[in-house]
Design a protein that fits this description.
heterodimer, A: 664 residues, 5 strands, 72% helix, globular
């Protein structure tokens, strides 16, 4: 029986682009984004039908369009892996679109273009996940990169935004370069660029290793593995907040998707691949959160947390790959399962955090944590949802982050065999690493939430803050509910991940392991529910306790000091200082300031700044070197078009001669 | 529990000390008082104590008494246990920041720093047990510790036990990490975070703190005492006896050690993690 679900999916991808194009020429700033957002809702609603069907039925869909293109055919497919990665897009993109309508409402400039590119980005991500041909994949990949580039430089009147966009464009294209080589090499081995045929190619171990390294570089740039993460902390703060939510929550996951997709094509993985990912995961996880601790810019802090969470995902995938290499189904299922589930979880809480940060920026006009404070009183909804997301990203129960981290822990501990030292090292890496990342993340979000929302306002920005409007509030509430929902429905959600895992690795858990895993998850769910009920119960008891006695309100205990001011509160920098000092060597925080002097000290200043180490010490020198090496070539670039045409003609003729010469 | 520690400390100081049940008197009195809130605070500080207490109560339910299984047990429950403690800490820290006091900020900052360092050593110690007994629920794992285990791999148990005892001292803000009796806000860690509580809230916090002490002590006792070799009816009394012993030990440590400088504490914690790591290596070699 031929069903038409795949066509429905493609239709769902085209609608946002069409409606986005309608919105493009609309000059009224109030209408354009709503038209485009309607397109996103409609498109995602339609595309959700085949995705849910693929997740439930598990039958891979595919569609081949009769159209000749070089190196294969125009094929789309939707299997468990694609369908699961579609979920975060379908959830986050419509919500962020509505949020964006209100977020951008005060802008003076026409909003048509930004709405259009937002829709293109959404559609291209959906299409990318279903592309089953190397060339098609690369074209969509490029569309995705370009449309997100235009979104990043929305505020292009600021120099730093243009600079960030430039960094993003360069990084993104370097990654694409690696992918181009990857697909060219793999395509030559398989004699086709179709994914199905590429998967059948027989590769020598060296070749497979090279291809895997290329995939890590190419997809890792998008995902944000350290040290390829340099564009994240630049681009995310520069972009409008709903765009950062979409990019950080969802778009960087396409890198993870690509990596997994390539892994399915390379045959039996070597243990070294798994170790590579585990090490990348540890480094990205720990350094990501360490850099995050040192930031004052709220959105930059969140960007570094994306690096950290990508690290956690990489840890899970690394465990899964090692499981494949060692033939241990426990590691495979729990490692890949945890990693892939964390993709969804991170998409939810990270986009929620970016939306929350956007709400803060929207109503205070500053991203500097040390200028904020006390916002919980004026922005209750934002504060509550931000608190939930903070707990979730720190991996605390009863929220979703805990479920995926729990799976990865289980992978580490379950896989341990006393006779195989490798498994023990993996368990140390997973157990110790995750525990440390979790602890540091909790520290960092205690800082972010505590300093921004609690205490007293530290500046006039924060004093005059107001709650944001309904269109910005409700998306956050929905996402926060999703955080809790996944935490409480853990077994059901984990069942949804399994088809995705099966696509990557045709391994199933032995039945008794499956039941104990589900049992553990049920245990977590019961405990989480009990936790919620108990906490509420205690709170109610607590409320009823001081029978008839009045609550007194007074100042915070100040040690008898006469006139405390809001500026005396602990700041973000002071809160993080003990931890950042531990990572002094890598962080390279610059401190400048003047100590108070004299008998009646008048002024003292203190400032810290933490630039990105990879940018400062790796890429800046590297690009300077390349720049110097290539400067002679610059003479060829002089802006005379007819000479450029001559170059093109010369190259074409040379190609023709080469090809013709090869034939005869 | 706290009562025993205080009695031991009083004994060392040559005083008579408060009653062993003093904590309960305090709790009862606090529960009847009205509360005072700072004008800087919000709902966070009102919710905080309930969340903390709920976490601790649940975590306590996951602990076995020797072979007597815990009310709640499933494979991997120890991970949940660690994260419940994490959630409690997160709630305390947020509530502390809610007051906007710089002392509480300091305490919060120190607390999260030490926690981030303490957690890896907890999991490393866990890993040693996993290697030895296979991975299952906490109740099942500790019920397999017997005299036989002591004979074959006593070193492991001692190393992990020491490492977890240091964690007990750290997590419950005892000497040499934190001085629970100090009256100088600048030097406190846990106590300074709860400065602004009063009445029932303080009661909740105090009770949660003593539950936490119970949790860590129970972990150490379960690890060290070879429950499997004891007759079933003996296990519960022996377990309680072990708890008393651990408390006495804490009291002794408190009395004879001076408080370390804050900067030294990361070194203590990393030392504890190294003990567990050594245990791991010993396990792998033998």
């Amino acid at each position: 029986m031929k069903d038409r679900y795949m066509e429905v999916f493609i239709l769902g991808c085209i609608i946002p682009i069409v409606l986005g194009a309608f919105a493009l020429p609309i000059r009224r700033p109030r209408i354009a984004p709503w038209v485009a957002a309607f397109g996103v809702w409609l498109g995602c609603g339609i595309a959700a039908v085949p995705v849910i069907r693929a997740l439930a039925g598990g039958v891979p869909l595919s569609l081949q369009i009769a159209w000749n293109m070089p190196g294969g055919s125009l094929t789309f497919g939707l299997d468990g892996l694609s369908a699961f990665f579609c979920l975060p897009i379908l959830l986050v993109s419509p919500l962020a679109a509505v949020y964006g309508c209100q977020y951008l409402a005060h802008e003076k400039k026409p909003l048509g273009p930004v709405s259009f590119f937002y829709n293109v980005l959404t559609a291209s991500m959906l299409l990318l996940l279903t592309a089953r041909n190397g060339l098609l994949f690369l074209v969509i990949w490029e569309v995705m990169a370009i449309s997100s580039f235009f979104l990043v430089i929305f505020d292009d009147e600021h120099a730093h935004v243009r600079q960030a966009g430039w960094t993003y464009l360069v990084a993104s294209h370097l990654g694409t370069g690696a992918l181009l080589v990857l697909f060219a090499l793999l395509g030559r081995q398989a004699n086709s660029l179709d994914f199905d045929l590429m998967a059948k190619a027989v590769l020598s171990p060296t070749m497979a290793g090279i291809l895997f390294a290329l995939a890590v570089i190419g997809f890792g740039t998008k995902a944000g593995f350290i040290p390829l993460h340099v564009w994240l902390p630049e681009a995310h703060p520069a972009a409008p907040s709903h765009v950062s939510a979409l990019m950080s929550g969802v778009m960087i996951k396409t890198g993870i998707y690509g990596l997994l997709r390539i892994v399915t094509m390379l045959g039996h993985p070597a243990a070294a691949w798994g170790w590579t990912l585990v090490i990348i995961g540890l480094v990205s996880g720990i350094l990501g959160v360490a850099f995050a601790l040192a930031q004052h810019d709220l959105k930059r802090l969140l960007a570094y947390h994306s690096v950290e969470n990508i690290g956690i995902i990489a840890l899970g995938l690394g465990a899964g790959l090692l499981g494949l290499a060692w033939d241990q189904p426990v590691l495979v299922v729990l490692g890949f399962g945890g990693g892939i589930l964390h993709v969804l979880n991170h998409a939810i809480f990270k986009s929620l955090l970016f939306l929350g940060a956007g709400a803060v920026v929207h109503s205070t006009g500053t991203r500097d944590i040390d200028h904020l404070g006390g916002l919980i009183k004026s922005m209750r909804w934002t504060a509550a949802t931000f608190a939930i997301a903070s707990a979730a990203i720190s991996g605390l129960p009863p929220f979703n982050g805990f479920v995926s981290e729990f799976l990865i822990y289980l992978a580490g501990f379950r896989g341990v065999r006393a006779d195989a030292p490798g498994t023990v090292i993996l368990a140390i890496a997973v157990g110790g690493g995750l525990a440390m990342i979790g602890g540091l993340a909790a520290a960092c979000f205690a800082k972010a939430f505590g300093i921004v929302f609690l205490g007293e306002p530290r500046s006039s920005h924060a004093t005059h803050a107001e709650e944001v409007g309904a269109a910005m509030r409700w998306p956050m509430v929905v996402l926060a509910a999703a955080c809790l929902g996944i935490g409480l429905l853990a077994p059901a959600v984990v069942k949804m991940v399994l088809p995705a895992v099966r696509t990557v690795a045709p391994a199933t858990l032995p039945p008794e392991l499956m039941t104990t895993t589900m049992g553990s998850l049920m245990g977590i769910v019961c405990m989480s529910t009990a936790l919620l009920l108990l906490a509420i119960g205690f709170y109610l008891i607590r409320r009823s306790l001081p029978r008839g006695k009045e609550e007194t309100a007074t100042g915070t205990w100040d040690c008898g000091y006469a006139r405390p001011t809001a500026r005396m509160q602990y700041t973000a920098s002071s809160f993080a200082q003990p931890l950042t000092d531990l990572f002094k060597i890598v962080l390279g925080t610059r401190k400048q300031g003047s100590a108070p002097s004299g008998f009646f000290p008048q002024r003292a200043t203190f400032e810290t700044q933490t630039p990105d180490a990879a940018r400062e010490h790796l890429f800046v020198p590297l690009f300077r070197l390349i720049d110097r090496a290539l400067s002679p070539v610059r003479r060829m670039q002089h802006g005379r078009i007819h000479e450029y045409l001559l170059y093109i003609a010369l190259v074409l003729i040379l190609l023709l001669i080469w090809k013709a010469g090869g034939r005869s | 529990m706290l009562g025993i520690i205080n009695r031991v400390k009083a004994f060392f100081a040559g005083r008579q000390g408060p009653s062993v049940w003093q904590l309960y008197h305090d709790l009862f009195k606090l529960l009847q008082k009205a509360s005072v809130y700072s004008r800087s605070t919000s709902a966070v500080i009102r919710l905080g104590p309930s969340v903390v207490l709920a976490c601790m109560a649940l975590a306590t339910m996951m602990l076995p008494w020797g072979e007597l299984r815990a009310p709640v047990t499933f494979v991997g429950d120890i991970i949940l246990l660690a994260y419940l403690l994490g959630l409690a800490r997160f709630a305390t820290v947020l509530a502390a920041l809610d007051t906007g006091s710089s002392f509480e900020g300091m305490g919060a900052s120190r607390e999260v720093q030490f926690a981030a360092l303490a957690e890896p050593s907890f999991f490393l110690g866990m890993l040693v047990l996993v290697l030895h007994f296979g991975f299952s629920g906490l109740s099942k794992m500790v019920s397999e510790i017997s005299l036989e285990t002591w004979r074959t791999s006593g070193v492991l148990l001692i190393l992990v036990g020491c490492s977890w005892f240091v964690l007990l001292l750290t997590e419950n803000s005892r000497m040499p990490v934190d001085d629970p009796n100090t009256h100088l806000e600048l030097t406190m860690i846990h106590e300074v975070m709860v400065l602004d509580y009063g009445g029932p809230d303080l009661a909740f916090i105090l009770y949660a703190a003593s539950l936490k002490l119970w949790i860590f002590a129970a972990l150490v006792v379960n690890l060290i005492v070879p429950m499997h070799s004891l007759a079933p009816w003996l296990q519960a009394p022996i377990f309680l006896l072990g708890m008393v012993f651990v408390m006495v030990l804490v009291g002794v440590v408190e009395s004879i050690l001076a408080r370390q400088r804050l900067l030294q504490i990361p070194k203590i914690l990393i030392g504890a993690a190294l003990l567990s790591l050594i245990a791991l290596i010993v396990r792998l070699m033998g």
